[in-house]
Amino acid sequence: MRSRTGPRRPLRRPTATAVGAAAVAAVVLAAALVWSLWPSGVSVPSDFGTRPRALEPVTGMSSGILDDAPGERKTSGPVSEPTALHVPRVSLEARVQGVGVRGDGTVEVPDDAGQAGWYRFGPAPGSPEGSAVLIGHVDDHTGDLGAFAKLYGVRKGDTITVAREDAPPVRYEVTAREVVDKDQLPDEVFRRHGRPVLTLVTCAPPYDRERGGYQRNLLVYSVPAG
């Protein structure tokens, strides 16, 4: 993922960086809309909970670099692809499409800010291990909020449902949320092994147009319900 207004830059690993607006006026409007979702005086969403970690050593990673090349899947068995995301308490409804890696090494994001992208080279939601990653925009180039702006309002214990193609939906429970610098994503975000988790990723302030857009990422973690 990269800012729509910022220059392309080479990255060493698939990662979710910032997604911004295309024009200054739209950026100002979108930022005002996003900020209106938060309590007065809070510049970024607050962290809560503890990031889920693998119960076994995470393999295939070194300093956040995946050992398999982007575009190669190292999962076995059939995959039921996600088709829709639903977080009822915050009224988040989004269609889900598979996304991969851009030529510059950044993770693709759907053009439609109302949709979510599933990182298809990692685990799928419902997989018995690893982190399934869904990525979405916080705002659109028009200044409208993206679907994932509603993640700023999630709470611990919220239910997330992911509909799947040719398989029953899977339910998760939100356990943690954190804001990290866009170049400091935890290794666990793209891990393929260990306890199953659903990781939702979007952008967070501050926004710096000269540095390529939003400078932080909001991560929401959830584990299988029940």
Automatic annotation (TrEMBL):
Pfam families: Sortase. InterPro entries: Sortase, Sortase_dom-sf, Sortase_F. Residues 59-82 are annotated as: Disordered. Gene3D superfamilies: Sortase. It comes from the Bacteria. SUPFAM superfamilies: Sortase (SSF63817). Keywords: Hydrolase. Transmembrane segments: none annotated. This is Class F sortase. The lineage of its organism: Bacteria, Bacillati, Actinomycetota, Actinomycetes, Kitasatosporales.
